[in-house]
Amino acid sequence: MIDTIESPYIHAASDDNFPSLVLENSKTGPVLVNFWEKKGGPCLRQYPILDALVTKYQGKFLLVNVDTAKEIKTAREYGITSVPTLKLFRHETIQASLHGYQSEADLIQMLDQYVSRDSDQVLASAIQEYTIGNHIEAYEMITGEIINDPDNPRLPVALCKLLKHEQRYSEAVNILNSVPPDISQNPDIILLQDQLSFLVVADQINDIDALMEHENELPNDLKTKIQLCAYYVANNQFREALQTLARVIEIDPQYQDNAARTAMLRIFNILGEGHELIAEFRPLLNRYKH
To answer: Is the pTM of this model over 0.90?
Structure first.
C-alpha cells in the first residue's frame, strides 16, 4: 500500500507536516513528492517503480507520498489537477515536475540530475582547491569530471559560476550552450544562462555615462535601451531594467524577434517566483502578447 511506511526514506505527508517533511528536508537533499489517489489506477502502477527506486538509490532521495483526496489544501496549493503527479524539491523549491505515469527510465533520468553522485565528491574537492588559490587545478578537476560524468548538471554549473566570478562570461556561455540535451533544462543551468545573457552585453559597455547620455538624446533608440537594461541587471537594478524593457515593448513589441519580451522573462526567472516586480510587470507582457 502506498500509505504504508516501508522504508526510512518513504513518508506520507499531511497538510500539517508537508512544510517540515518536504521543504525542510529538501535543504539537505532531493525530496520526490508523489501526489496520488487510491482510486487512480496509474498511481497504483506507478508506486512499485518508485518503491524500487528508493531501494536502488539507497537513501539518496526522500520519497514523500501525498494522498490528494485527503490532503486537499496541499494539492490545491501545488496546482495538482491530475494524478499521479511527481514533483522534485531541492532547497525548498520545485526543481522538476512529471505528470502521469512514468517509466523507470524516465524517473532515473530525472533523479540522476539531483541525487548525489561520485563526481560530486570530486567537485567538492575542486572547490576547496579553488578556495585556497589553486585555480588551475580546480578547473582541471571539474572539466575532467564533466568528461567522466556529463550528465551531472552540478559540474558545468559550478565551473561556470567560477568563470562568472572571474568575469569570464563568454567562456561560461559557451560551456552552458554545449551541455548534453538531457540536462540543458536543469533550472540552475537555465538561471545561469539568463544571468550571463545580460552580463555578456553589459561587459561590452565601455562608457556607461556616454550610453545614458545617448539614450537621453535619442529616447527611441531601442538598441541603446537593450544595452542599458543589461547594465541595470548586472548592477541588480531590476526595476530600472524592467522599466527600460517596458519602454522598448511599448515602442516596438517585436523589436529584434521580441528581444525585450525575452529579456523580461529572463529577469523574472532571475528574480524568482513570487517577487513583487513580476506581479507589477507581467501584465505588460500579457497586454502585448502575440
So the answer is: no
Going along the chain from its start, the domains and CATH numbers come out as: 10-111 (3.40.30.10), 118-182 (1.25.40), 208-287 (1.25.40.10)
Question: Among 276, 264, 188, 269, which Cα is nearest to 232's?
Answer: 264
pLDDT one-digit tens code per residue, 57-86: 999 999 999 999 999 999 999 999 999 999
Using CA atoms, how far apart are residues 281 and 269, in angstroms rounded to an integer? 13
Can you give the pLDDT at residue 193? 98
Whose cell is 526543481? That residue is: 95
Contact of 116 with 62, CB cutoff 8 Å: no
Give the whole-angstrom CA distance, residue 66 versus residue 238: 38
